Amino acid sequence: MRKLYIQAVSALNCDDDWHEFNGKCYFATTVKKSYSDNLNYCRKLNADVASIHSKKETEFLLKLTESYEHYWIGGRRIVPKKHVFGWSDGSEFNYTNWDKSSNDPNNLNERENCIIFVRDSGLWWDFPCNEPHYAFCQRTEMQQVVAKFAIEDGKQQAIVIKQKEKY
Prior knowledge:
With 167 residues, this protein is mainly β. The chain has 2 helices and 11 strands. The two termini are 39 Å apart. It has 2 domains: 1-18 and 144-166, no CATH class; 25-140, Mannose-Binding Protein A, Chain A. A hairpin with a 6-residue loop joins strand 7 (114-117) and strand 8 (124-127). The longest helix has 10 residues, at 35-44. The chain has helices at residues 35-44, 55-64; strands at residues 3-9, 19-21, 24-28, 48-49, 71-77, 85-87, 114-117, 124-127, 134-139, 144-152, 155-164. The strands form 2 sheets. Strands 2, 3, 4, 5, 6, 7, 8 and 9 form an 8-stranded mixed β-sheet that branches. The protein has a 3-stranded antiparallel β-sheet with strand order 1-10-11, with no helix packed on it. It comes from Leptotrombidium deliense. Residues 21-138 form the C-type lectin domain. Pfam families: Lectin_C. This is C-type MBL-2 protein-like protein.
């Protein structure tokens, strides 16, 4: 009698209602809130307001929702009255997609300290942080599904499927 033990590890995946892109999970909120309220909401989900680092990431977010609304992203002015921004997740601010046709970032009336993702184009506007909008939440924690089973004399004996903790 021969027994064969096999362990299969599935691909990493995101929770329900979250969408995977390039090793991160994204979620589009469904209630309009201020930037700060959205930041708190995303953090309650063990996430942050999304930071964008490439054109491909911009294109992914454009496809994520069919709404024609604007969304908060995690950029915020970090030097008052200057066009110096940082991401709420602390990642490097190494990509921009400002809407040059509207002269952004322009800090109109010195009140525009957060960044809006313009839904129909993916371009960015600086915008007053207290305005209510949806947001993109982003996290790197993903689940991993592991299946273990034994085969004895060609017959499957047992299956154990479990989800590993998020990491």
